[in-house]
Amino acid sequence: MKTNKYSLFPTLLLFFINSLYAQTDISQIIETSIDKDQSRLIEIFKDIHQNPELGFMETRTAGVVEKELMSLGYEVKTGIGETGVVGILKNGNGPTVMYRADMDANAVKETTGLPYASTKVVKREDGSETPVMHACGHDAHVTWMLGVAKLMAEHKELWKGTLIMVGQPAEEPILGAEAMVNDGLYTTHGVPQPDYLFGLHTAPVGVGLVAAATGVRMAGTDQIDITFHGVGGHGSMPNLTKDPVVMAASAVMQYQAIVSRGIDPKNSAVITVGSIQAGSDNNVIPASSLVKVNLRWFNEHDRQLLIEGIKRINEGIAHAYNMPKDKFPEMKMKGWSTPLDNDVELTKTVQNALEGLVGEKNILKEDRLPSVMGSEDFHHLVVHNKIKRYCYAQVGIAPPEMFEQALQEGKVFPFGAHNGDFQVDLDAIPLGTKVGATGLLAIFKESE
C-alpha cells in the first residue's frame, strides 16, 4: 500500500513534542534538585578548600568522598592507588559511565584573603614543610562530583546503566590515574571498565562560560628528575672540584635549543625547568645537583626528540667535565600522560545538552577554543582499555566582574591556576554541579 508522505507528519510532530517535554522535565529536575542542595554543596566545598592535601596524601578528602557516596547507596571501594576512592551505582541495563574528579592540592601559599582560605602547612616525604592550597580547583571538582552523585542516586528514573564515581589522587604530579589502574582498578578491585568517561575542570573565566571542545585539547607531558654528579669541595678551590651547579646551569640553557632548533616550528613543545636543588652553604661546592624538568608535546616523535636531546646534552656536559661513565647524569622518568583527545561524537552530545543549560553563546567549542599546553591524566583511567571514549570539559569559576575587568585590562584571565590568588566563585559550585549532571545524563540518554 502506498503511504501518503504527509501521513507521518503528526507522528513525527508528536515525537518531537514529547522529546522536548522530556528534556524540559529533566532540565527542571536538575535545576530544582541542585538549587535545593546548594547550601550543603558550598559547605562541602569550603571544608575541602580549608583542608587541602597533596598527591597521595588525600586521606581526609578521600574520607569525605567515601562517606558521602556510602550514604547515597553506592558500593564504595577505597585505597585504590593509595588514596583513590570509587563508588559504583547500578541501575538496570544500560551503558557503564565513569565520572572522575581529582582530589589533590598544590604546594602553594594562599593569598586570596577569603574567610575560608587555607592556612595549612604540610610535611613532605623528605621532611620539608610547605604551605598548601587548592590552586587548581580540585576542591570544586570533588564537590561537583558529590552533588552529581546525589542527583543520580535520587533520580534513577532519569537513567539506566552503571555509574562509576572516581575520586582520583595525585593528578598534579600526573601519577594518580596510572596508579589506580596499576593497582588493579579493573582487576583486583573489580571496577567495571566504562563505555564512556566524563569529567570537569575549573577554568579561570567567568562563571556561566563552559568549554566543551572536540579533538586534541591538552598536550602530553613528562616529569623528569635529572641528577648531575660532580666532585664537591671548597668554594675557594674550584679547580679541585667538578661543579655540578655549573653543570646544571649549562644544561638549563642548552635544553631550550632542543625546542628552538630541534622541533618543527609548526609544532608546539615546551621544556620547563621548575626547580634546581644543590648544596646549602655559600662556600661549599656540592657533590650533586638536582634539576626538575617538565615537558609538553603533542606527538610521540617530538616527545622522543625532547627526551633524547636532554639525554645527549646531559652526557655531553658530563663528558666535558671528564666524569667517569658511572657518574654520568641520571634521568628519572616520573609522571606522564599522552595528549588529551576528546571523542568527537561524545563531546557533541555533551555540547548539545549544555546549550540548554548555559546557552549556545556561552559554550566554547573547538572553533573558539584552541588546544592548550596544559596537561591532564584524566584519560589515563581508560587509555589502556579497549574502549577509550571520553569527554573532558571546563567550567568557568571566576567572579564575572573580575573576569570582565581583566579583559578590559588586556589580560586573558583575572588569575591563573597554581597561583596563590586562584579562587572559585561560590556561584560556580551549583552551576558546575548542573553542568556535570546535564552532561552525564546526556551520555546515558544518548546510549539508550
TrEMBL record:
<feature type="domain" description="Peptidase M20 dimerisation">
    <location>
        <begin position="223"/>
        <end position="314"/>
    </location>
</feature>
<dbReference type="Pfam" id="PF01546">
    <property type="entry name" value="Peptidase_M20"/>
</dbReference>
<feature type="signal peptide">
    <location>
        <begin position="1"/>
        <end position="22"/>
    </location>
</feature>
<dbReference type="InterPro" id="IPR011650">
    <property type="entry name" value="Peptidase_M20_dimer"/>
</dbReference>
<dbReference type="InterPro" id="IPR002933">
    <property type="entry name" value="Peptidase_M20"/>
</dbReference>
<protein>
    <submittedName>
        <fullName>Amidohydrolase</fullName>
    </submittedName>
</protein>
<keyword id="KW-0378">Hydrolase</keyword>
<dbReference type="InterPro" id="IPR036264">
    <property type="entry name" value="Bact_exopeptidase_dim_dom"/>
</dbReference>
<keyword id="KW-0732">Signal</keyword>
<dbReference type="InterPro" id="IPR017439">
    <property type="entry name" value="Amidohydrolase"/>
</dbReference>
<dbReference type="Pfam" id="PF07687">
    <property type="entry name" value="M20_dimer"/>
</dbReference>
